[in-house]
Amino acid sequence: MTQGILARYRDRLPVGAKTPIITLGEGATPLVQADALARRAGLPKGSLYLKLEGSNPTGSFKDRGMTLAISKALESGARGVLCASTGNTAASAAAYAARAGLRCVVFLPKGGVAMGKLVQSLMYGAEVVEVRGNFDEALALAMSTARREGFTVVNSSNPFRIEGQKTGAFEIVEQLGAAPEYQFMPVGNAGNITAYWKGYREAGPGRPRMMGFQAAGAAPLVLGRPVLKPKTVATAIRIGNPVSREGALRARDESRGLIGKVSDAQIINAYRLLARLEGVFCEPSSAAGVAGLLKIRHEGYPIRGRAVCILTGHGLKDPDTPLQFAYKRKIVAPGGKLRL
Ligand code: F0G
């Protein structure tokens, strides 16, 4: 049977003898070498890697944190679980709650969730509440509802989420044989960068510079203040007031990394390059880290050593964004001769 992260990293996670293990075999995701992309970034062969978190059971990195958060909620006798989400947290919570036999309520910003994610929540049987507002407003409503109703919040404010997600760093250290010199990743609510930094600090002596990237229209950590009306094509990171702000700034400062911003055009460019050069289809938000790498290399930023980009979610989550580009397709009648 495939082991999930709770079994593989049990000694480094808050799992007790009585903790029920709710797993879908998450983690152990591929780390693939990306030489064509490295060349685009002016980096040597063998220096750039992609961590394919879209290969997790519900198609995003959220499953690492959710296996633990839901297992602990079940252990504590929770009435149910609840979250606000731009889609992936909801899909993951819904799946693991279904396995645990727990009620799951998800608060989604209406019109701000990619289709694949919405249908996941519906299929897994979550109670879907669409909020006429943005993610930050949905989160405020989720938190007040959870307090009143006695539900367990499984957003990344839940410390078990961060604990589970730190295992991504453990895997990268195992896969490369040491920590990379740089890690590039998207930043939304800032839980994942917080979790990876915790993971690297626990994994051993080598630590990467943490290079986080927000979308330019939703870049509160770059601006140093909340953004009231966040805007970006990358719906997963359309967040104006990140909960884990402190963790992200700590990761940046302690690692001597940076948190920067990338435009929607830069995100889409990286998104398409990943698919066309490397055969890796991730969702637009996931490409923000790669967009950041290409941007800073273009500006002459030096990279010495190995860099890993975290591709946080699968491209199939969002089937609508690619269709906005004019891809050439041929339509033919059967039986004719096609010249290529
Ligand atoms: N990439 C994807 C695909 C995401 O879904 C998210 C966050 C992020 C990156 C950013 O991670 O929030 O830890 O900084 N999605 C959350 C959600 C907000 O509700 O699914 P973060």
As laid out across the biggest beta sheet, the strand order is: 1-2-10-7-8-9
- Approximately how much helix is present in the residues? 25-40%
Overall CATH architecture of the largest domain: 3-Layer(aba) Sandwich
Average pLDDT, rounded to a whole number, is 97
Radius of gyration (Å): 20 Å
Question: What's the CATH class label of the largest domain?
Answer: Alpha Beta
CATH topology name of the largest domain, in short, is Rossmann fold
Number of strands: 10
The profile of the biggest β sheet is: 6 strands, mixed
Can you walk me through this structure?
It contains 13 helices and ten strands. The protein is an alpha/beta fold and 340 residues long. A six-stranded mixed β-sheet has the order 1-2-10-7-8-9, with helices on both faces. A four-stranded parallel β-sheet has the order 5-4-3-6, with helices on both faces. The longest helix has 15 residues. The chain binds ligand F0G. The site of ligand F0G has 22 residues, from helix 4 and helix 9.
Give structural attributes.
340 residues; alpha/beta; Rossmann fold; 2 domains; 6-stranded mixed beta sheet; 4-stranded parallel beta sheet; 10 strands; globular; binds ligand F0G
